[in-house]
Amino acid sequence: MFLELLDTLFGVFDLIIILLIVLGNVYIYKTKKISFFPWYIHLILILSFILVLPLFSGVIEYRTYIEHCKVTPDGFETVYIWLRWPTYWGIGLFEGIVLNLILIRNSKINEGWGK
User: In the predicted model, what is the mean pLDDT of residues 27-48?
Assistant: First the structure.
């Protein structure tokens, strides 16, 4: 039931991205070595969640729909593809909050506050 819901809401590309985000967060949390990201890493993350990832996800979903149905998408499928953008914006916002909390925790541990 849960897997059917995930398959309905997200494509394979989206699930791989979410898995990579979770694994990256766990790695940063467990190693406790990374306590700061330079400005260009923040810029890359922001641009990827605002533009790059939703664009790739929409193109992949559109091509998958065309291959399976052999027709152009109807109105519902078009809305579904366009709603990938705010979904990735929400995921990016959530990731930014979680990543900042992890980095704050790591910086406190590295400075000796957490000992």
Answer: 86
Q: Determine the Cα–Cα distance for residues 72 and 105; give it in Å rounded to an integer.
A: 49
CA distance 110 to 22: 22
Q: How many helices (H) and strands (E) does the chain have?
A: 6, 0
C-alpha 62/C-alpha 80 separation (Å) is 10
- CA distances from residue 81 to 40, 58, 62, 84, 112 in whole angstroms, order as listed: 29, 5, 7, 6, 47
Is the per-residue pLDDT at 83 higher than 90? no
Position of tokens 């993350």? 45
Task: Yes or no: say if 92 and 46 are a contact pair by the CB < 8 Å rule.
Answer: yes
Q: Which class for 49: exposed (0-12), middle (13-18), buried (19 or more C-beta within 10 A)?
A: buried
pTM recorded for the entire structure: 0.79
Cβ–Cβ < 8 Å for 103, 36: yes
CB 49 within 8 A of CB 95: yes
